[in-house]
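Residues determine shape. We examine one folded chain.
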Amino acid sequence: MDAKDRQIIRALQQNGRMTNQELAAKVNLSPSPCLRRVKILEAGGAIKGYTAEVDPKAYGLPVTVFVRIRLERHNADDVQHFESRVQAMDEVLECVVMTGATDYQLRVVVSGLDAYEDFIRHRIHPIGCIASIDSSFVYGFVKKTGVFPRVD
């Protein structure tokens, strides 16, 4: 990936709905080479898709919670069991594997505190193999972006 490809990606991260003509002008290419580069980035998996950024509160999910989970054991069966169960939960927007005292961090959205309690009691607890659950509720965002920094 070269600097022009990165420029294209940053422009699309800022506005994934711009036309190829607009993108080409923004990155200083003619439309045909620009489109060719975008198609190569898509085919190679660098561009994984296009989505709409939606306000969770407007959608009806105003509560965001970061949930840190530590497993009791780290054998292959427990890890696979936990990860497959979490992948099936719509409330979990992200699940990352962590270093340190926490094994996983989940970003969860719910409609309220009752919904979060229900999520923990009826979705997370039944998984089993969990040693601890630690929750932090988000009450505001200072910065949220999907645009990568420049790489020189």
Remarks:
- The CA atoms of residues 16 and 51 lie 8 Å apart.
- Residues 3-43 form a domain with the Arc Repressor Mutant, subunit A fold (CATH 1.10.10.10).
